[in-house]
Each structure stands twice: as C-alpha cells, then as structure tokens.
Amino acid sequence: MESVVFDIGSTLVREDRYWGAWADWLGVPRHTLSALVGAVVAQGRDDGDAIRLVRPGVDIEAERRAREAAGRGEWLDESDLYPDVRSALGALRASGLRVVLAGNQSLRAGELLRGLGLPVDAVATSSEWGVAKPDPEFFRRVAELGGAAPGDTVYVGDYPAFDIRPAKAAGLRAAHIRRGPWAYLWADTADAAMADWRIDSLDRLVETVTEPRM
C-alpha cells in the first residue's frame, strides 16, 4: 500500500453534533431527526431527506447559509473526532504512506477539518469537487488525490454501499470500519463483504496496512 484515503463522517468524525445542530435549527427534538435520518438511509435515500421530511420544500443549501448568518453554522473540533483518529493518522503517515481525507461533506466541513491540523497530506470534500459518493467520478478523484495506483490505495469507510462497493468498482482496495450507525446496520451485507479488511478501530487498520512494510 502507498496511500490510505479516509471517509470522514462516522469514520473519523462523530456526527452527533452535526445532526443535533440541524434538529435545533429546525425546532424538532434531536431524537426525532436522528430517527428520521436512520429511516431514510435504511431506505437507501439521501440523509438530507430527513431534513426535507421535517420541512417539506426546504432548500438545504439556503438553510446552511441562513445558519451561518445567524452564527449557528456547522462546527467541529477535536471533541468530535473518535479517540483513535489523530494517533492512527500520524502512525500511517510516519510509516511512509500518503494519508488523505475525502468524504461527502460541505465546504465548511473541509475548512474546519483543515483547521484541526491533522497529520494528513490532503483534505477534500464532495462540495469542493462538485461530485459525491457513490458516483464513480468521486472515486476517480480519490485515486488521483491519493497519488498512487488504485490497487495501491485503500479507501476506509463505514457505509458499505457508498464507500466499499464503489471503491472496489474503481479498482481501489477497501477497509470497512464497523462504527457509526450504517456500519452496524449493514455489517453483514454483500457490499460490506467486498472489503479487503473489516476492522473495528483505526488502530487495527494501522497494524494491518503497515505490517507488510515493517
């Protein structure tokens, strides 16, 4: 392996704050929106449909701008990272691998992630690229940003249908991390079974991916 590319939401970053802030903005209980997110994703729909159920006809991007203008925009800090993130990214990079973050996030999320000073070589989001997972173009760009041949690049994610299957279709190797709601929900699906590695922590990924290089 020469490059490791990480999904962001539920792989590196907990999404509690993200959805809690949306619930507060929409004026509904946090549990209500959380349940709706789970329901729409389980149906194979975009998670933004949960917001559209609460407020039919909503322009989500316009609401993002309104939140920013009101001082209630998207935010994340060190407390939103899973405990193993910083150490695992650092260990992978120290081993000589190129480490990249690329997921379905907003422009603002990209800025916030860069501001955390994580030990990575690059950060990219779907909003910056104008294309989102599971579109094949997203994974073409993943391979390009990874700077290695697809077969020498690992994509790490929690959502089998959006992370594992399309990564494999693009010729990348894939690691399914079993954390976050979608990882648990679809851990036993055919999409999850396509992964080259199935892990429960990033520490395990470090052991697995760097072992041949030691």
What does this molecule look like?
By secondary structure, the chain is an alpha/beta fold. It has twelve helices and six strands. It has a six-stranded parallel beta sheet, sandwiched between helices. Helix 9 links the parallel strand 4 and strand 5.
Quick take:
With 214 residues, the protein is an alpha/beta fold. It has helices at 16-26, 30-42, 49-54, 60-69, 85-94, 107-115, 126-129, 136-146, 160-169, 181-185, 190-193, 202-210, and strands at residues 3-6, 98-103, 122-125, 153-157, 173-177, 197-199.
Estimated structural class = alpha/beta
Helix content: 40-55%
**Poorly predicted regions:** none
The major β-sheet equals: 6 strands, parallel
- The tally of helices reads 12
Estimate the global geometry from the Cα principal axes: globular
What topology emerges from the helices and strands here?
Elements: E1 3-6, H1 16-26, H2 30-42, H3 49-54, H4 60-69, H5 85-94, E2 98-103, H6 107-115, E3 122-125, H7 126-129, H8 136-146, E4 153-157, H9 160-169, E5 173-177, H10 181-185, H11 190-193, E6 197-199, H12 202-210
Parallel strand pairs: 1-2, 1-4, 2-3, 4-5, 5-6
Helix pairs in contact: 1-2, 5-12
